[in-house]
Structures are given as C-alpha cells and as structure tokens.
Amino acid sequence: MKILIADDDPQLVRALRITLAAHGYDVVAAPDGAAAIALAAKEHPDIVMVDLGMPHLDGVQVIEALRGWMTAPIIVVSGRAGSADKVEALDAGADDFVTKPFQIDELLARLRALSRRAPASADDPIVSFGDVRVDLAAKAVTRRGALVHLTPTEWQILEFLARKPGVLVTRQALLTDIWGTEQVTDTGYLRLYLSQLRKKLEADPSRPVHLLTESGMGYRLVLDNVG
C-alpha cells in the first residue's frame, strides 16, 4: 500500500519513511503543498498523510484540491491541536486527524483503519464516453477504434479529469498538477487545451456534452449525459 506524506519537516519524513517501510508501506513524500498535489496525481497513493502548516499551499488547501478528484483516505498529522483546525480539515475532506507529537503505534493503528476504507487500487483503467475510450493504464485514447494523438499536456488534463469522472475539478487543481506551483495563473492555457481536447474527442466541439466547463469554477468530465 502506497502512502503519500506531505510535510516540510525532513527529519519527521525520514523517520516515517523508515518506520512505515518496516511495516510494509511504500512511501513517497512531498515537502510542500503544491508538490503534494502534483505527486498525488502522478503516484495515485492509497492514503495521503498531510501536515497543515506547509509552504506553497497549506494542508487544508491541499485537502480541498485532492478532494476535487481523489477518494483515497486523507489523514492530517499536525502540530495544530485546536478544535477549529480539526473541524476545518475534516470539513475540507480529511478522514482523520492525529496531533503531533504522536505515538507511532497510534499512527499505525489509524493507518490500518484507513487502509480498510481505502478504495481498491485496481480500479477499472478504462474510461469511456461517447465514442471515446481512455485507457489510463496504457495512456492511450481511441475514438471509434482509431488512436487519437494527444500532446503530453492534453493527456495530463484528460487523465486528471478521467480519474474522477462527474466531479468538478477546479482550475487551480489542474494548474497546480500540470505546472507544479500555485503561482501559475490561468492565462488561457486551460481554455486552449480544453478546446483542443474537445476538437479531438467531442462529436460537436462547439457544444460539448462530455468535457464541460463550469463557469468560474473549473471543469468536469461527464461520462453519460442522459436527459
């Protein structure tokens, strides 16, 4: 089982790597919030462990961004012990909260409990809509049986949306995942790439029914637009 640790304390991360690896976990780590979102999109962890006080997006912002597309359990491990911090993190989408300093036995018990709730990592790697078939494992897209060429960035956007179909994905989540920093602002990149994707994948690009824009918020991939 893969765990993503998002924490800017290198000593803690090093200790957790050793301890969790000894208990059979595969650990990946990010030193800040923006890197955590990018790494989550790349690695698809089974559980995410997040500190609240991080640079480049704090823990709550990370949770909100991840919840735009992923269902994996999120556990907050933070020195912020106030009830308001806990409520804010849980309302943002966290599943559990452990206060620093913590006993490793307690953390391991919480992780075991979360692992029982984690979705299976072997989800169907095929996503289909209209006459399009997206093979997430092979990183291939076909339309009416013919291979569709996508640029690397077009693929990243489509993959991000396809891994959470039907869910609104914010522009900031996409920008951070693809360009790797919250400093990036939408200067038309996403509109351009979504337009290109619609030309390649929608029956009528001017009236899309699958790759939808939610005005002022973000984008959504709709697999079945009935009624």
Description:
It is a single chain. The chain is an alpha/beta fold. It has 2 domains: 2-117, Response regulator (Rossmann fold, 3-Layer(aba) Sandwich); 126-221, Orthogonal Bundle (Arc Repressor Mutant, subunit A). Helices cover 39% and strands 21% of the residues. The chain is built from 8 helices and 12 strands. The protein has helices at 10-22, 33-43, 59-66, 83-92, 104-117, 152-162, 171-179, 189-201; strands at residues 2-6, 26-30, 47-50, 74-78, 96-99, 126-129, 132-135, 140-143, 146-147, 169-170, 211-214, 218-221. It has a 5-stranded parallel β-sheet with strand order 2-1-3-4-5, with helices on both faces. A 4-stranded antiparallel β-sheet has the order 6-7-8-9, with no helix packed on it. A 3-stranded antiparallel β-sheet has the order 10-12-11. Helix 4 (83-92) links the parallel strand 4 and strand 5. Helix 2 (33-43) runs parallel beside helix 3, helix 2 packs across helix 7 and helix 6 (152-162) crosses helix 8. It is elongated. It starts with a strand and ends in a 6-residue tail after the last strand. The model has no long low-confidence stretch (mean pLDDT 85).
